[in-house]
């Protein structure tokens, strides 16, 4: 499934089971929409382009609408979940704020499901930027964003699905049950604690060291023992990029490796 999206001529349904992708040379890829492995490969290659396919391919508009509905339904069954934690303060340092904006946009553009804690600061900014992208698509925000808060508290960002837990450890652990990667931005104590739980749950930890705080501490800790973090086996150089201002490309490459 190495076709360039720009060279696609047509995507159409064949019977009730198959999605057929045809390139400009009329060679085809056939995907069974009920086969999880085939769908995973499809979304890995084309998932972030689904909403733009109508501008690229030719074919019947009615059929395309039906196809897109099927793709969205099937995509919701294949979870690509990431949790983000970080500094919980209304007035964020400039570099923490900027990093949060970049990451919120990136995760939405890469079609991830996002888990945050519902606090002010990093949680709010990431959720807000993530929602701006999702709201331009056909996905419901509640299918893509989950905010985990303790009972009696309401999330600062208004939107997405709300999961209530007991105050304390479950505020960190609940999202780690689903997320395959944890991104850390800044942090003032609680972020480091989340890192410790993530290690126990075998979740890939990606600290953005550029803003400093707990994330920088965690980055330094992982860097000194990087060979023992299996998810970084093929992307050590990309991991080292997480300590500078141009971290976003390194982060994207690592996420692609983890979720391939």
Please mark out the parts with pLDDT under 50 across 5 or more consecutive residues, or reply none: 1-6
Distance between the termini: 13 Å
Kindly report the CATH topology of the largest domain: Rossmann fold
How much helix, percentage-wise, in residues? 40-55%
Q: In sequence order, what are the helices and strands, one letter per element?
A: EEEHHHEHEHHEEHEHEHHH
Number of domains: 2
pLDDT averaged over residues = 85
How many distinct beta strands?
9
CATH class of the largest domain: Alpha Beta
CATH architectural name of the largest domain? 3-Layer(aba) Sandwich
User: What is Rg?
Assistant: 19 Å
Shape field: globular
General description of the model:
The chain is of the alpha/beta class and 260 residues long. The protein is 42% helix and 19% strand. It folds into two domains: 5-75, no CATH class; 81-258, Rossmann fold (3-Layer(aba) Sandwich), CATH 3.40.50.450. It contains eleven helices and nine strands. It has a six-stranded parallel sheet with strand order 7-6-5-4-8-9, sandwiched between helices. Strands 1-2-3 form a three-stranded antiparallel sheet. Helix 4 (94-109) runs parallel beside helix 5 (122-134) and helix 8 runs parallel beside helix 9 (213-223). The model is unreliable at 1-6 (pLDDT under 50).
């Amino acid at each position: 499934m190495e076709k360039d999206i720009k060279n696609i001529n047509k995507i159409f349904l064949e019977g009730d089971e198959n999605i057929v992708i045809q390139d400009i040379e009329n060679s085809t890829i056939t995907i069974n929409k009920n086969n999880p492995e085939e769908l995973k490969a499809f979304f890995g290659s084309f998932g972030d382009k689904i909403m733009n396919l109508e501008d690229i391919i030719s074919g019947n508009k009615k059929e395309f609408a039906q196809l897109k509905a099927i793709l969205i339904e099937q995509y919701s069954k294949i979870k690509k979940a990431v949790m983000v934690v970080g500094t919980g303060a209304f007035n964020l340092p400039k570099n923490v704020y900027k990093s949060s904006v970049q990451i919120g946009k990136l995760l939405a553009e890469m079609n991830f499901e996002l888990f945050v804690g519902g606090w002010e600061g990093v949680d709010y900014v990431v959720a807000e930027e993530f929602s701006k992208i999702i709201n331009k698509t056909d996905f419901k925000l509640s299918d893509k964003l989950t905010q985990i808060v303790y009972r009696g508290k309401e999330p600062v960002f208004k939107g997405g699905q709300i999961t209530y837990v007991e105050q304390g450890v479950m505020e960190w652990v609940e999202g780690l049950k689903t997320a395959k990667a944890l991104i850390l931005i800044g942090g003032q104590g609680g972020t480091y604690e989340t890192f410790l739980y993530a290690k126990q749950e075998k979740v890939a930890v990606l600290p953005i060291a550029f803003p400093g705080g707990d994330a920088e501490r965690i980055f330094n800790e992982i860097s000194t023992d990087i060979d023992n973090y299996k998810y970084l086996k093929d992307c050590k150089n990309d991991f080292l990029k997480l300590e500078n201002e141009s971290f976003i490309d390194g982060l994207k490459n690592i996420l692609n490796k983890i979720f391939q």
